[in-house]
Amino acid sequence: MNRLLDWIIVGGGPAGLACAIEAKKRNLEFWLVEKGCLVHSIYRYPVNMNFFTTANLLEIGGVPMIISSEKPKRVDGLKYYRRVADDFELPIKYYERVISVKGQENDFLVQSINQLDQEQEYRCRRVIIATGYYDNPNMLDLPGEDLPKVSHYYSECHPYFQKKVAVIGGQNSAAEAALDLYRNGGAEVTLIHRGEAMGKQVKYWVLPDINNRIKRGEIKAYFSSAVQEIRETDIVLSTPEGAKTLENDYVLAMTGYHPDVVFLEKMGIEVDPETCISEHDPETLETNVKGIYLAGSIVSGKMTNRIFIETGRFHGEQIFKYFSNEGEPVSAGA
């Protein structure tokens, strides 16, 4: 594509959509490029998941989110963001993975591969990276982590019926997976966590539930413990009482996620190796590469509890308020 676009937005989650809405309002030329389906990360959430927040805090573009329950469910979120994309007639390329961003402000070349394995190219003046972190799990780096029985994602309980399942982690995803497996999946659940107790940031209605299941022995828990090795039919733990070997059919490593650091660094963006936070201006969200901006949870690196949909949905407004309606930059604070 030889035409010089105003923007390419990489990532079709809520933050990417919010940026696209702001560009659309200004009649700018752009494409939003998404490697999967719309709001792909939400699509991959557990099937019966409830959001932590209320519906109004998931809204973008002034479009109301109407639901029948107190907390929106995954299915509510998917339906809502489909409606937003339709209402604003956003130009979106689905199932197209951006593989590189080269060049400089006013002359970027964005290269991608679509679902037919065809290479695509776009020229644009500026780029927004809103790719989140959900596709990049924090690996355990253990022997056996590459076995088919191991997953870093949890969708639903049915495949684990009457199986021995180890859930690694102590935050929301681990707690909710363990509860769903126990209550609805008919699985024998063991939870393993390095901490002395479940994390303090577990949802307030989930925390007493998981703690009570552990207290009653309905979910076996090993705290201050870690998995040392994963094998075909068992796992080896280090515990305060010493090494233990447990029979095991499946392992769910709910250990968190991080941004695609390699992808960012290839653009020239400086990334802190400890936090995975990219160098950026907190006011404009522009990175150290002039003309490349960040939006959504990718801004917080590994600190995934700092930015949620509720706050990332404002990043589009935050970025575009430093541009005129004609797409020209204005000074921060002007």
Summarize the structure.
It is built from eight helices and 15 strands. It is an alpha/beta fold and 334 residues long. It has two domains: 4-135 and 257-320, FAD/NAD(P)-binding domain; 150-253, FAD/NAD(P)-binding domain, CATH 3.50.50.60.
Structure description:
This protein has two domains: 4-135 and 257-320, FAD/NAD(P)-binding domain; 150-253, FAD/NAD(P)-binding domain (3-Layer(bba) Sandwich), CATH 3.50.50.60. It is elongated, with a radius of gyration of 22 Å. The two termini are 35 Å apart. The chain is 20% helix and 25% strand. Helix 4 packs across helix 5. It is α/β, with parallel strands linked by helices and 334 residues long. Strands 1, 2, 3, 4, 5, 6 and 15 form a seven-stranded mixed sheet that branches. The chain has a five-stranded parallel sheet with strand order 7-14-8-9-10, covered by helices on one side. A three-stranded antiparallel sheet has the order 11-12-13, with no helix packed on it. It contains eight helices and 15 strands.
